[in-house]
Amino acid sequence: MLDYYVVGADLAQGELALAHDEEEIDVRRVGRWAFHFGFYMSSSHKQIVAKCRLYVHSRKIDILEPLGRGDQGEVFATTRRTAIKALHHDVDYRRERDVYLRLRERGVNAIRGCAVPQLQGFDDDLLVVEMTIVRPPCLVDFASAYLDTRPEFPPDVVAAEQMRHRETFGETWPLVAEIIEQLAGLGIHLMDISAGNIRVSVGS
Predict the structure, then answer these.
(1) Is 133 within 8 Å of 117 (Cβ atoms)?
(2) CB distance 199 to 136 below 8 Å
(3) Is the CATH number of domain 6-199 3.30.200.20?
(4) How far is CA 160 from CA 57, 137, 164, in A?
(5) pTM over 0.85, yes/no
(6) Signed CA dihedral, 143, 148, 151, 153: sign only
(7) Could you tell me the CA-to-CA distances from 36 to 30, 56, 90, 155, 171 in Å, in that order?
């Protein structure tokens, strides 16, 4: 069950207070610059939720239930019927944000019948991206993707990965391969190719 954290903020004065259980952190006149110096850059669940609470507070919405959690960040539903994803690390955040900006720029909302979340907002200091919620068949999670330049790998590594993907996706692999190719045509090169991120089924 998700622990909710109380976030009290006077944004005009730049004052912030976070409270969780018996522990309390009180930061005076913190300002957004503090995030760049790592004050909230820890990968802990507590600080991820604190960043999400700050994001929704600034947009006059609220957090609902958690939607997902992984190595790179956590995702929550909001009262605006969107999802917010808070990333642990700046590099992952910028990849995710930039892919969504590219998709919005090209007007892409689906690829080969798979829904693509639409960018709704982002915060470079909090490392939070807000997007529409999609359901299968769909594509999610672009934090490992590269824009425009694909990393080079030895041929044997590429062949082993192709074999692994074929085994993972089975009958749907031809469709998944087309999706990957179309994304590459947009300059988006997926690295984390998994059934959790490319959610398709036979007949999609």
Answers:
(1) yes
(2) yes
(3) yes
(4) 46, 26, 6
(5) no
(6) positive
(7) 11, 19, 9, 39, 45
The alpha carbon of residue 165 and the mean position of all alpha carbons in its chain are separated, in whole angstroms, by 22
Looking up tokens 């802990």, which residue turns up?
44
d(CA 11, CA 22): 24
Q: Which amino acid is residue 41, in one-letter code?
A: M
* β partners of residue 17: 8, 26
The domain limits of the chain are 6-199
Q: What is the DSSP letter of 9?
A: E
Mean pLDDT, consecutive 10-residue segments, the chain of 204 residues? 30 33 32 38 75 96 94 95 96 97 98 97 98 96 96 95 96 96 97 95 74
Find the largest Cα–Cα distance for the chain. Answer: 57
Tokens of 128: 């939070």
Backbone angles phi, psi at 172, to 5 degrees: -90, 0
d(CA 16, CA 56): 15
- SS3 call for 114: strand
